[in-house]
């Protein structure tokens, strides 16, 4: 019996280097196929989340002004922007933070691909969400989701002024081909509320 066991043990062969390399090559091919598609799903999920957030923040802005009529009478400046951001954040059960050039960020809201997302109030009583270096594809999806129609670039508006959309637009000096991540990007302003 011991001899049979020894013979069986001696006849077993291990894994060859070629077999190991074949497995590594197969795994490499599978990962090369899978990773880009997983990355695509992650990016799509981020965009979908923002589109929902964009609709919610627009509704929260209207709610903030309806519940705080005094916001309409505030004098312009950073103090007003802070109070507006606080009211919007409260309506969304979140917080505002980091003042930047009289604009305030609202936590939990981030325009896809933007390096910064802020809330600002113009002197004519319009509340905007601003994004820096937003990819054009993301901007177009935002415009569509909020029902604002086509998002024209500054050059398109220069060629045909009727394309200018007061509700959502690239700032005149913000759009640049290859401006961010090697793709068309620009600074975008989205109207949330007007009084």
Would you write up a description of this structure?
The protein is of the alpha+beta class. The protein has one domain. The chain has five helices and seven strands, in the order αααββββααβββ. The protein has helices at residues 2-11, 17-67, 78-91, 136-145, 154-159; strands spanning 96-100, 103-106, 116-121, 126-135, 168-170, 176-180, 183-194. The strands form two sheets. Strands 3, 4, 5, 6 and 7 form a five-stranded antiparallel β-sheet that branches. A two-stranded antiparallel sheet has the order 1-2. Helix 2 (17-67) crosses helix 3 (78-91). The protein is elongated and about 100 Å long. The N and C termini lie far apart (94 Å). The mean pLDDT is 78.
Task: Give a count of the beta strands, DSSP E runs of length 2 or more.
Answer: 7
Beta-strand percentage range? 15-25%
Distance between the termini: 94 Å
The Rg value, from CA coordinates, equals 27 Å
Tally the structural domains. Answer: 1
Mean pLDDT over the full residue set: 78
Main pleated-sheet profile? 5 strands, antiparallel
In N-to-C order, the SSE pattern is HHHEEEEHHEEE
> What share of residues is helical?
40-55%
SS summary, helix count? 5
Unreliable segments of 5+ consecutive residues: none
Shape: elongated
- Structural class determined from secondary elements: alpha+beta
Summarize the SSE layout with pairings:
Elements: H1 2-11, H2 17-67, H3 78-91, E1 96-100, E2 103-106, E3 116-121, E4 126-135, H4 136-145, H5 154-159, E5 168-170, E6 176-180, E7 183-194
Task: Give a short summary of the structure.
The chain is an alpha+beta fold.
């Amino acid at each position: 019996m011991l001899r049979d066991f020894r013979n069986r043990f001696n006849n077993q062969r291990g894994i060859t280097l070629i077999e190991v390399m074949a497995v590594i090559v197969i795994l490499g091919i599978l990962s090369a196929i899978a990773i880009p598609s997983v990355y695509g799903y992650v990016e799509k999920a981020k965009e979908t989340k923002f589109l929902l957030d964009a609709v919610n923040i627009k509704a929260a802005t209207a709610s903030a002004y309806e519940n705080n009529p005094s916001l309409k009478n505030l004098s312009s400046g950073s103090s007003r922007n802070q109070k507006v951001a606080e009211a919007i954040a409260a309506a969304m059960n979140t917080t505002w933070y980091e003042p930047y050039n009289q604009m305030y960020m609202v936590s939990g809201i981030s325009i896809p691909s933007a390096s910064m997302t802020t809330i600002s109030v113009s002197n004519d009583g319009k509340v905007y969400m601003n994004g820096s270096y937003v990819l054009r594809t993301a901007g177009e999806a935002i415009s569509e989701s909020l029902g604002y129609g086509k998002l024209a670039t500054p050059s398109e508006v220069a060629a045909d002024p009727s394309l200018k959309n007061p509700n959502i637009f690239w700032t005149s000096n913000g759009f640049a081909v290859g401006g961010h991540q090697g793709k068309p990007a620009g600074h975008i302003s989205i109207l949330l509320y007007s009084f």
